Amino acid sequence: MIELTTIIDGKALAGEVEAETLERAKKLANKAIVPGLATVLVGENPASQMYIRLKHSACSRAGIRSENVLLPESSTEEEIIAKIEELNLREDINGILLQLPLPGGLNPQRAMMSILPEKDVDGFHPRNMGALLLGAERLVPCTPLGIIYALERLDKKLEGTEVVIVGHSNVVGKPLAAMMLNRNATVQVCHVFTRDLAEHTRDADILVVAAGVPGLIKKEMVRPGAYIFDVGINRVGDKTVGDVDYEEVSQIAGAITPVPGGVGPLTVAMLLRQTLNATEDQTKDQQ
Ligand SMILES: NC(=O)C1=CN([C@@H]2O[C@H](COP(=O)(O)OP(=O)(O)OC[C@H]3O[C@@H](n4cnc5c(N)ncnc54)[C@H](OP(=O)(O)O)[C@@H]3O)[C@@H](O)[C@H]2O)C=CC1
Ligand SMILES: Nc1nc(=O)c2c([nH]1)NC[C@@H]1CN(c3ccc(C(=O)N[C@@H](CCC(=O)O)C(=O)O)cc3)C=[N+]21
Protein backbone atom coordinates (compact mmCIF):
# COMPACT_ATOMS: atom_id res chain seq x y z
CA MET A 1 0.00 0.00 0.00
CA ILE A 2 1.30 3.45 -0.84
CA GLU A 3 0.97 5.88 2.04
CA LEU A 4 0.44 9.44 0.86
CA THR A 5 2.15 12.34 2.55
CA THR A 6 -0.18 14.97 3.99
CA ILE A 7 0.99 18.49 3.20
CA ILE A 8 -0.01 20.56 6.21
CA ASP A 9 -1.45 23.70 4.68
CA GLY A 10 -0.74 26.31 7.36
CA LYS A 11 -2.23 29.05 5.26
CA ALA A 12 -5.57 27.26 4.89
CA LEU A 13 -5.71 26.43 8.62
CA ALA A 14 -4.86 30.05 9.40
CA GLY A 15 -7.74 31.18 7.16
CA GLU A 16 -10.13 29.07 9.24
CA VAL A 17 -8.78 30.51 12.47
CA GLU A 18 -9.20 34.03 11.10
CA ALA A 19 -12.86 33.32 10.29
CA GLU A 20 -13.45 31.88 13.74
CA THR A 21 -11.73 34.87 15.36
CA LEU A 22 -13.90 37.24 13.34
CA GLU A 23 -17.03 35.49 14.66
CA ARG A 24 -15.81 35.88 18.24
CA ALA A 25 -15.00 39.55 17.58
CA LYS A 26 -18.52 40.11 16.22
CA LYS A 27 -20.04 38.73 19.42
CA LEU A 28 -17.96 41.20 21.42
CA ALA A 29 -18.99 44.03 19.10
CA ASN A 30 -22.59 43.57 20.29
CA LYS A 31 -21.30 44.73 23.67
CA ALA A 32 -19.34 47.58 22.13
CA ILE A 33 -16.02 45.79 22.70
CA VAL A 34 -13.37 45.81 19.97
CA PRO A 35 -10.30 43.63 20.62
CA GLY A 36 -7.10 45.71 20.40
CA LEU A 37 -3.54 44.58 19.76
CA ALA A 38 -0.46 46.79 20.02
CA THR A 39 2.84 45.70 18.53
CA VAL A 40 6.08 47.38 19.53
CA LEU A 41 8.84 47.45 16.94
CA VAL A 42 12.24 48.83 17.89
CA GLY A 43 14.51 49.77 14.97
CA GLU A 44 14.26 48.98 11.30
CA ASN A 45 15.08 45.29 10.83
CA PRO A 46 13.47 44.47 7.43
CA ALA A 47 12.45 40.93 8.44
CA SER A 48 10.77 42.26 11.59
CA GLN A 49 9.01 44.94 9.54
CA MET A 50 7.63 42.22 7.28
CA TYR A 51 6.41 40.06 10.20
CA ILE A 52 4.73 43.10 11.76
CA ARG A 53 2.94 43.81 8.47
CA LEU A 54 1.76 40.17 8.27
CA LYS A 55 0.40 40.39 11.82
CA HIS A 56 -1.47 43.64 11.23
CA SER A 57 -3.08 42.49 7.99
CA ALA A 58 -4.22 39.27 9.72
CA CYS A 59 -5.73 41.40 12.52
CA SER A 60 -7.68 43.47 10.03
CA ARG A 61 -9.18 40.29 8.49
CA ALA A 62 -10.08 38.91 11.92
CA GLY A 63 -11.89 41.86 13.49
CA ILE A 64 -9.02 43.01 15.69
CA ARG A 65 -8.05 46.69 15.87
CA SER A 66 -4.26 46.87 15.78
CA GLU A 67 -1.65 49.55 16.05
CA ASN A 68 2.11 49.53 15.74
CA VAL A 69 4.35 51.55 18.02
CA LEU A 70 7.63 52.37 16.30
CA LEU A 71 10.62 53.16 18.50
CA PRO A 72 14.00 54.31 17.20
CA GLU A 73 16.98 51.97 16.92
CA SER A 74 18.73 54.03 19.61
CA SER A 75 16.02 53.40 22.25
CA THR A 76 17.12 52.41 25.73
CA GLU A 77 15.61 49.60 27.76
CA GLU A 78 13.94 52.26 29.96
CA GLU A 79 12.31 53.94 26.98
CA ILE A 80 10.90 50.66 25.72
CA ILE A 81 9.56 49.83 29.17
CA ALA A 82 7.97 53.30 29.52
CA LYS A 83 6.09 52.76 26.27
CA ILE A 84 4.93 49.31 27.33
CA GLU A 85 3.70 50.70 30.65
CA GLU A 86 1.60 53.24 28.76
CA LEU A 87 0.04 50.41 26.74
CA ASN A 88 -0.55 48.38 29.93
CA LEU A 89 -2.78 51.17 31.22
CA ARG A 90 -4.90 51.55 28.09
CA GLU A 91 -8.31 49.85 28.22
CA ASP A 92 -8.59 49.68 24.44
CA ILE A 93 -5.41 47.59 24.22
CA ASN A 94 -5.95 43.94 25.18
CA GLY A 95 -2.75 42.44 23.78
CA ILE A 96 0.85 43.70 23.63
CA LEU A 97 3.61 42.14 21.54
CA LEU A 98 7.25 43.24 21.62
CA GLN A 99 8.79 42.15 18.31
CA LEU A 100 12.08 40.28 18.67
CA PRO A 101 15.00 40.51 18.24
CA LEU A 102 15.71 43.91 19.79
CA PRO A 103 18.52 45.85 18.08
CA GLY A 104 22.08 46.21 19.25
CA GLY A 105 22.25 43.55 21.91
CA LEU A 106 19.45 45.09 24.01
CA ASN A 107 18.32 42.40 26.42
CA PRO A 108 14.59 41.71 25.96
CA GLN A 109 14.05 40.05 29.37
CA ARG A 110 13.22 43.14 31.42
CA ALA A 111 11.06 44.70 28.71
CA MET A 112 9.18 41.45 28.31
CA MET A 113 8.58 41.30 32.06
CA SER A 114 7.08 44.78 32.00
CA ILE A 115 4.16 43.60 29.83
CA LEU A 116 1.08 42.90 31.99
CA PRO A 117 0.78 39.08 32.03
CA GLU A 118 -2.93 39.41 31.09
CA LYS A 119 -1.93 41.28 27.92
CA ASP A 120 1.08 39.11 27.05
CA VAL A 121 -0.35 37.51 23.88
CA ASP A 122 3.11 36.15 22.94
CA GLY A 123 3.21 34.15 26.18
CA PHE A 124 6.80 35.21 26.94
CA HIS A 125 6.25 36.70 30.42
CA PRO A 126 7.86 34.59 33.17
CA ARG A 127 4.46 34.32 34.90
CA ASN A 128 2.91 32.78 31.77
CA MET A 129 6.00 30.64 31.08
CA GLY A 130 5.94 29.47 34.71
CA ALA A 131 2.25 28.56 34.48
CA LEU A 132 3.00 26.62 31.29
CA LEU A 133 5.80 24.67 32.98
CA LEU A 134 3.46 23.85 35.87
CA GLY A 135 0.89 22.46 33.44
CA ALA A 136 -1.59 25.34 33.79
CA GLU A 137 -1.32 26.88 30.32
CA ARG A 138 -2.69 30.41 30.00
CA LEU A 139 -1.23 32.63 27.30
CA VAL A 140 1.53 30.58 25.64
CA PRO A 141 4.07 31.21 22.84
CA CYS A 142 2.35 31.30 19.45
CA THR A 143 4.63 29.07 17.36
CA PRO A 144 4.39 26.04 19.68
CA LEU A 145 0.66 26.65 20.04
CA GLY A 146 0.27 26.66 16.25
CA ILE A 147 1.99 23.27 16.04
CA ILE A 148 -0.24 21.80 18.76
CA TYR A 149 -3.28 23.29 17.02
CA ALA A 150 -2.37 21.70 13.67
CA LEU A 151 -1.79 18.31 15.32
CA GLU A 152 -5.21 18.51 16.98
CA ARG A 153 -6.83 19.38 13.67
CA LEU A 154 -5.09 16.38 12.08
CA ASP A 155 -6.41 14.18 14.91
CA LYS A 156 -2.86 13.17 15.76
CA LYS A 157 -2.70 11.65 19.21
CA LEU A 158 0.08 13.05 21.40
CA GLU A 159 -0.09 10.83 24.46
CA GLY A 160 2.70 8.27 24.35
CA THR A 161 4.21 9.55 21.08
CA GLU A 162 7.91 10.24 20.62
CA VAL A 163 8.43 13.95 20.00
CA VAL A 164 11.86 15.22 18.99
CA ILE A 165 12.55 18.96 18.94
CA VAL A 166 15.66 20.41 17.29
CA GLY A 167 16.45 23.81 18.84
CA HIS A 168 15.97 24.92 22.45
CA SER A 169 15.16 28.62 22.12
CA ASN A 170 12.93 30.36 24.66
CA VAL A 171 10.36 31.13 21.95
CA VAL A 172 10.03 27.72 20.28
CA GLY A 173 11.95 24.68 21.56
CA LYS A 174 11.63 25.10 25.33
CA PRO A 175 7.94 26.06 25.53
CA LEU A 176 7.03 23.40 22.95
CA ALA A 177 8.80 20.74 25.03
CA ALA A 178 6.71 21.78 28.06
CA MET A 179 3.48 21.77 26.03
CA MET A 180 4.23 18.29 24.70
CA LEU A 181 5.00 17.01 28.21
CA ASN A 182 1.72 18.51 29.40
CA ARG A 183 0.05 16.27 26.78
CA ASN A 184 1.96 13.17 27.89
CA ALA A 185 4.30 12.83 24.92
CA THR A 186 7.87 11.56 25.40
CA VAL A 187 10.14 14.48 24.53
CA GLN A 188 13.75 14.79 23.38
CA VAL A 189 15.23 18.26 22.86
CA CYS A 190 18.36 18.56 20.67
CA HIS A 191 20.69 21.51 20.05
CA VAL A 192 24.20 22.28 18.77
CA PHE A 193 25.84 20.25 21.52
CA THR A 194 23.83 17.13 20.76
CA ARG A 195 26.42 14.50 19.84
CA ASP A 196 24.53 12.58 17.18
CA LEU A 197 21.48 14.46 15.93
CA ALA A 198 20.28 11.73 13.54
CA GLU A 199 20.26 9.15 16.31
CA HIS A 200 17.57 11.22 18.04
CA THR A 201 15.59 12.49 15.06
CA ARG A 202 15.09 8.94 13.77
CA ASP A 203 13.09 8.14 16.93
CA ALA A 204 10.52 10.82 16.19
CA ASP A 205 6.85 10.20 15.49
CA ILE A 206 6.65 13.99 15.50
CA LEU A 207 9.75 15.99 14.56
CA VAL A 208 9.88 19.74 15.06
CA VAL A 209 12.87 21.59 13.65
CA ALA A 210 13.64 25.16 14.78
CA ALA A 211 17.37 25.61 14.26
CA GLY A 212 17.70 28.22 11.50
CA VAL A 213 19.98 25.94 9.44
CA PRO A 214 18.82 25.27 5.85
CA GLY A 215 18.91 21.61 4.82
CA LEU A 216 19.74 20.40 8.34
CA ILE A 217 17.28 17.48 8.21
CA LYS A 218 17.78 14.91 5.45
CA LYS A 219 15.72 11.88 4.50
CA GLU A 220 17.89 9.36 6.34
CA MET A 221 17.39 11.25 9.59
CA VAL A 222 13.61 10.74 9.52
CA ARG A 223 11.47 7.73 10.39
CA PRO A 224 9.07 6.90 7.52
CA GLY A 225 5.58 8.15 8.32
CA ALA A 226 6.78 10.80 10.81
CA TYR A 227 4.99 14.14 11.12
CA ILE A 228 7.43 16.97 10.34
CA PHE A 229 7.06 20.60 11.43
CA ASP A 230 9.63 22.85 9.83
CA VAL A 231 9.83 26.08 11.83
CA GLY A 232 12.97 27.45 10.17
CA ILE A 233 12.81 30.56 8.02
CA ASN A 234 16.01 31.00 6.02
CA ARG A 235 16.74 33.21 3.04
CA VAL A 236 18.80 31.37 0.46
CA GLY A 237 19.39 33.61 -2.57
CA ASP A 238 15.95 35.03 -3.34
CA LYS A 239 14.14 32.01 -1.85
CA THR A 240 12.72 31.34 1.62
CA VAL A 241 13.43 27.82 2.82
CA GLY A 242 13.07 25.90 6.06
CA ASP A 243 15.50 23.68 7.97
CA VAL A 244 14.24 20.47 6.37
CA ASP A 245 15.28 19.20 2.94
CA TYR A 246 11.66 19.32 1.74
CA GLU A 247 12.19 17.55 -1.61
CA GLU A 248 13.72 14.49 0.04
CA VAL A 249 11.85 14.35 3.33
CA SER A 250 8.37 14.92 1.87
CA GLN A 251 8.78 11.59 0.06
CA ILE A 252 8.78 9.57 3.26
CA ALA A 253 7.03 11.77 5.85
CA GLY A 254 3.50 11.02 7.00
CA ALA A 255 2.83 14.75 7.07
CA ILE A 256 4.98 17.84 6.56
CA THR A 257 4.70 21.62 6.70
CA PRO A 258 6.02 23.57 3.71
CA VAL A 259 8.08 26.76 4.01
CA PRO A 260 6.61 29.23 3.28
CA GLY A 261 2.96 28.46 4.00
CA GLY A 262 3.35 26.17 7.02
CA VAL A 263 4.27 27.08 10.59
CA GLY A 264 4.59 30.84 9.87
CA PRO A 265 0.90 31.47 9.08
CA LEU A 266 -0.11 29.20 12.00
CA THR A 267 2.00 31.37 14.33
CA VAL A 268 0.18 34.51 13.23
CA ALA A 269 -3.19 32.76 13.53
CA MET A 270 -2.48 31.82 17.15
CA LEU A 271 -1.64 35.44 17.91
CA LEU A 272 -5.17 36.34 16.79
CA ARG A 273 -6.70 33.61 18.92
CA GLN A 274 -4.77 34.62 21.99
CA THR A 275 -5.70 38.26 21.49
CA LEU A 276 -9.36 37.18 21.54
CA ASN A 277 -8.77 35.02 24.62
CA ALA A 278 -7.11 37.95 26.39
CA THR A 279 -9.90 40.35 25.38
CA GLU A 280 -12.64 37.99 26.57
CA ASP A 281 -10.86 37.49 29.90
CA GLN A 282 -10.32 41.22 30.43
CA THR A 283 -13.93 42.12 29.63
CA LYS A 284 -15.70 39.33 31.54
CA ASP A 285 -17.64 41.86 33.65
CA GLN A 286 -19.04 43.62 30.58
CA GLN A 287 -20.33 40.43 28.92
N1 LIG B 1 7.78 30.12 11.52
C1 LIG B 1 7.74 30.84 12.61
O1 LIG B 1 6.68 31.25 13.04
C2 LIG B 1 8.97 31.11 13.36
C3 LIG B 1 10.17 30.83 12.78
N2 LIG B 1 11.33 31.00 13.45
C4 LIG B 1 12.55 30.56 12.77
O2 LIG B 1 12.95 29.33 13.40
C5 LIG B 1 14.36 29.23 13.42
C6 LIG B 1 14.80 29.06 14.87
O3 LIG B 1 14.51 30.21 15.61
P1 LIG B 1 14.48 30.23 17.20
O4 LIG B 1 13.58 29.17 17.72
O5 LIG B 1 14.24 31.64 17.57
O6 LIG B 1 15.93 29.72 17.61
P2 LIG B 1 17.34 30.48 17.68
O7 LIG B 1 17.70 30.94 16.32
O8 LIG B 1 17.36 31.38 18.83
O9 LIG B 1 18.23 29.22 18.07
C7 LIG B 1 18.42 28.12 17.22
C8 LIG B 1 18.35 26.83 18.01
O10 LIG B 1 18.76 25.75 17.18
C9 LIG B 1 19.89 25.08 17.70
N3 LIG B 1 20.78 24.73 16.60
C10 LIG B 1 21.43 25.57 15.75
N4 LIG B 1 22.16 24.88 14.85
C11 LIG B 1 21.96 23.58 15.13
C12 LIG B 1 22.46 22.37 14.58
N5 LIG B 1 23.30 22.39 13.55
N6 LIG B 1 22.06 21.19 15.10
C13 LIG B 1 21.21 21.17 16.16
N7 LIG B 1 20.71 22.28 16.74
C14 LIG B 1 21.07 23.46 16.24
C15 LIG B 1 20.52 26.10 18.64
O11 LIG B 1 21.26 25.43 19.64
P3 LIG B 1 22.27 26.28 20.63
O12 LIG B 1 21.42 27.24 21.41
O13 LIG B 1 22.84 25.21 21.50
O14 LIG B 1 23.21 27.00 19.73
C16 LIG B 1 19.29 26.80 19.21
O15 LIG B 1 18.70 26.06 20.25
C17 LIG B 1 14.87 30.49 12.71
O16 LIG B 1 15.05 30.18 11.36
C18 LIG B 1 13.72 31.47 12.88
O17 LIG B 1 13.71 32.44 11.85
C19 LIG B 1 11.32 31.44 14.75
C20 LIG B 1 10.15 31.76 15.38
C21 LIG B 1 8.88 31.66 14.71
N1 LIG C 1 7.63 38.88 19.82
C1 LIG C 1 7.75 38.11 18.75
N2 LIG C 1 6.76 37.24 18.47
C2 LIG C 1 6.85 36.42 17.38
O1 LIG C 1 5.93 35.60 17.13
C3 LIG C 1 8.01 36.52 16.54
C4 LIG C 1 9.00 37.45 16.88
N3 LIG C 1 8.84 38.22 17.98
N4 LIG C 1 10.12 37.57 16.12
C5 LIG C 1 10.31 36.80 14.93
C6 LIG C 1 9.54 35.51 14.91
C7 LIG C 1 9.29 34.99 13.52
N5 LIG C 1 7.85 34.94 13.37
C8 LIG C 1 7.18 34.63 12.19
C9 LIG C 1 5.86 34.95 11.99
C10 LIG C 1 5.23 34.72 10.78
C11 LIG C 1 5.92 34.13 9.74
C12 LIG C 1 5.20 33.92 8.46
O2 LIG C 1 3.99 34.03 8.38
N6 LIG C 1 5.92 33.61 7.37
C13 LIG C 1 5.35 33.38 6.07
C14 LIG C 1 6.15 34.12 5.01
C15 LIG C 1 7.59 33.66 4.95
C16 LIG C 1 8.44 34.42 3.95
O3 LIG C 1 8.17 34.35 2.76
O4 LIG C 1 9.39 35.07 4.44
C17 LIG C 1 5.32 31.88 5.79
O5 LIG C 1 6.06 31.13 6.45
O6 LIG C 1 4.56 31.47 4.92
C18 LIG C 1 7.22 33.78 9.93
C19 LIG C 1 7.86 34.02 11.15
C20 LIG C 1 7.27 35.40 14.49
N7 LIG C 1 8.18 35.74 15.42
UniProtKB/TrEMBL annotation:
The identity of this protein, by name, is Bifunctional protein FolD
Q: Which GO terms describe its cellular component?
A: cytosol
Origin species, per record, is Methanothrix soehngenii (strain ATCC 5969 / DSM 3671 / JCM 10134 / NBRC 103675 / OCM 69 / GP-6) (Methanosaeta concilii)
Recorded hits in CDD domains, A to Z, give: NAD_bind_m-THF_DH_Cyclohyd
Q: Taxonomically, which superkingdom?
A: Archaea
| Keyword annotations | Amino-acid biosynthesis, Histidine biosynthesis, Hydrolase, Methionine biosynthesis, Multifunctional enzyme, NADP, One-carbon metabolism, Oxidoreductase, Purine biosynthesis
Residues of the Tetrahydrofolate dehydrogenase/cyclohydrolase catalytic domain: 8-122
Q: Which residues bind NADP(+)?
A: G167, H168, S169, I233
What PANTHER family does the annotation carry? C-1-TETRAHYDROFOLATE SYNTHASE, CYTOPLASMIC (PTHR48099:SF5), C-1-TETRAHYDROFOLATE SYNTHASE, CYTOPLASMIC-RELATED (PTHR48099)
